[in-house]
């Protein structure tokens, strides 16, 4: 690991993943790395490629449930150069590590709108593209012009949006390392953008348990239904296993009341699936990603 540190990469052994997830849950990462430039990333890949260790790229940790046992291999966070945004006409080129609310604020400063509906999604550009993050108003995939990726061998590639398949909370980018994305925005009045942003944020404040430890919606909405409605109608609002609770405010959120274990979260998710399936004959598919054993 010394050779990685000499490159300027931050390397931590047995780093608790609970420090890096919005649920504050997760055992230790064998090797947690912070990489600050494309150059560092490519050298890291060339050094580690032959080591055959697992590799996981972490965004803001706002859509993952990491196991209590933690993760083997390298857990990589892209920062520095990957947190930069630049503008050309009505397009923004953003690094994978840019926090979405920050991107929307920077776009507003340039008089560029069109992404406001995503302001309440507390993830990075990389995580959002991987998940095709979205709301009922907008999915990030619809804004994408191109995505710059590198392969595990460190080879750079720029993919046009036409070559990417964005679906409901998934994309064909799975398996790639996302480095940068160019998004097509629209010129708009700055005050109008700020007003729309405020409206989206106040709606979230009213309807979601903002300020608690959670990971957003746990389940995808089944076709023709809302997962939250099904869970609420099954009488599970407020239901708890250990320190994991179905939010009394929004039934598709599970809140860590403090010190919840991944196992309690998983048990609660399973219980919800069982009860909803028994009552309504509908299978709820998790939207979040389970990471680790
Ligand atoms: C309060 C709250 C509200 C939310 N509201 C919404 C919402 O309205 N809509 C919505 O869609 N989601 C929502 N989410 C979920 C989450 O914020 C999004 O899915 C977000 O896009 C995840 O981004 P992230 O950076 O946190 O990714 P992570 O959770 O860190 O990772 C998610 C996946 O992306 C991969 N990944 C991350 N970065 C890279 C990269 N550079 N290269 C390759 N793979 C990468 C990871 O390996 C993982 O598979 C919400 C979450 C919270 C906590």
Describe the model.
It is a single chain. This protein has a 5-stranded antiparallel β-sheet, with helices on one face. Strands 1-2-5-3 form a 4-stranded mixed β-sheet. It folds into 3 domains: 2-78, Uridine Diphospho-n-acetylenolpyruvylglucosamine Reductase, domain 2; 82-207, Uridine Diphospho-n-acetylenolpyruvylglucosamine Reductase, domain 3 (2-Layer Sandwich); 227-291, Uridine Diphospho-n-acetylenolpyruvylglucosamine Reductase, domain 1, CATH 3.90.78.10. It is globular. It has helices at residues 2-6, 38-48, 100-109, 125-131, 190-207, 227-233, 262-280, and strands at residues 10-16, 28-35, 55-58, 64-66, 71-78, 85-88, 91-95, 112-113, 144-150, 156-160, 166-167, 170-171, 177-184, 186-187, 240-241, 244-246, 254-256, 289-291. The mean pLDDT is 96. It has 293 residues and is of the alpha+beta class. The protein binds flavin-adenine dinucleotide.
Features:
293 residues; alpha+beta; Uridine Diphospho-n-acetylenolpyruvylglucosamine Reductase, domain 2; Uridine Diphospho-n-acetylenolpyruvylglucosamine Reductase, domain 3; Uridine Diphospho-n-acetylenolpyruvylglucosamine Reductase, domain 1; 3 domains; 5-stranded antiparallel sheet; 7 helices; 18 strands; 26% helix; binds flavin-adenine dinucleotide
**Derived structural class:** alpha+beta
The run of helices and strands is HEEHEEEEEHEHEEEEEEHHEEEHE
Unreliable stretches covering 5 or more consecutive residues? none
| Helical percentage | 25-40%
Named once each, the bound ligands are: flavin-adenine dinucleotide
| Strand coverage percent | 25-35%
What top-tier CATH class of the largest domain fits best?
Alpha Beta
Mass-distribution shape: globular
State the helix count.
Answer: 7
Mean pLDDT: 96
